[in-house]
Design goal:
By secondary structure, the protein is α/β, with parallel strands linked by helices. The protein is built from 11 helices and 13 strands.
């Protein structure tokens, strides 16, 4: 059994606990939270009553090193960079759910996150944790930088186009809508109060969302050239889910929906968590809720020469904790789908 530790009682930490409780080859042996130290996890996460006897502990790296084979760091930006060194030196694998090691250029990280990167020397050792893109590199890695939730949906929507050099790389527009759980458990801004959020939608961080450079970095690596995207996130009055619709100008305007669909179907036919919907069918965020699945639909608009791709994921699972467990499975040579192969909750 892989001995697992989780640091941070965020929504991500709770989802990790929920998923790993039924994992056949992993056991959560350590859970640290400064906010909830001393409290039973079943009180912090009421859905876990009857499923765990663990309590939140005060963070102590010595205990974590002694007990754990792998640590999931579900903390705010800037925390992991100050802590990972000691664990890596002790042979503990790290899967970081923050952005601290996603961006390869520390100056770009500092520009977008407004934090001085204090462990820039470790960044080259981190593997970006999207299995559909870096499966071989993830296997056996010591430090995994888990993708951002919006980024996971955008990359899955666009990767086949960039791998096959099918679109103008300066033509990309990404429109994403997320449930409010993406704001995290400790956010108490007025925008997230029920009367402000309910029966309404809003765009936010237009032209300046922190996931933008991450999307551009990974698409640029596929394209072999610099990529600049227009990315706009929106807040939906729902708890879970991301629906991303991406627009790209085709290099060959004569390509049909069937042509592009065939390319996507070939790209994802062996991916256990990516489902290409039938032509003319488009994803529902509800259909993937609670699952590690991504549903994708697409259409070519020959009038404009654009291909339009829509992808749905659960922001807390495929966008965070589910893909983190998928990465853990790869790191330890387990079946990639262990603990994760289940449908979404519908309705």
């Amino acid at each position: 059994m892989v001995k697992v530790g989780i640091i941070g009682a965020s929504y991500g930490g709770g989802e990790l606990l929920r998923i790993l409780t039924n994992h056949p080859s992993a056991e959560v042996v350590y859970f640290a939270s400064e906010t909830f130290k001393g409290k039973a996890l079943s009180d912090v996460y009421p859905n876990m009553k009857g499923f765990t006897n663990l309590a939140c502990q005060e963070y102590d790296p010595r205990i974590a090193i002694e007990k754990c084979d792998v640590l999931f760091m579900a903390q705010h930006q800037g925390w992991a960079m100050s802590e990972v060194g000691k664990f890596l030196a002790a042979g503990v694998k790290i899967i970081d759910l923050s952005a601290d090691f996603r961006i390869k250029n520390p100056s770009i990280y500092e520009e977008w996150y407004k934090i001085k990167h204090t462990s820039a020397d470790i960044i080259p050792n981190a593997v970006y944790g999207l299995p559909e893109l870096y499966r071989e590199k993830i296997s056996g890695a010591n430090l995994i930088a888990n993708p951002g939730c919006y980024v996971a949906s955008a990359l899955l929507a666009l990767m086949p186009l960039f791998k096959n050099k099918l679109v103008y790389t300066d033509s990309i527009v990404i429109d994403s809508k997320s449930g409010v759980s993406g704001a995290g458990r400790s956010s108490f801004k007025l925008d997230y109060h029920f009367p402000e959020l309910n029966e309404s939608m809003k765009a936010y961080n237009i032209g300046g969302h922190r996931h933008t450079p991450e999307i551009e970095q990974e698409l640029g690596a596929l394209a072999g050239t610099e990529v600049v995207v227009s990315f706009t996130p929106h807040l939906m009055p729902v708890t879970r889910g991301i629906l991303t619709t991406a627009y790209a100008k085709l290099l060959d305007g004569s390509k049909t929906t069937s042509d592009i669909y065939e390319i996507y179907n070939d790209a994802y036919k062996d991916e256990p968590f990516v489902c290409m919907l039938k032509q003319g069918e488009y994803p529902l965020s509800k259909a993937v809720s609670g699952s590690n699945n991504c549903h994708i639909g697409l259409k070519v608009d020959n009038r404009t020469g654009r291909v339009i791709i829509s992808a749905a994921i659960d922001n807390l699972v495929k966008g965070m904790s589910g893909v983190a467990v998928q990465n853990m499975n790869l790191v330890f040579g387990l079946e990639e789908t262990s603990g994760l192969k289940q449908p979404g909750v519908y309705p």
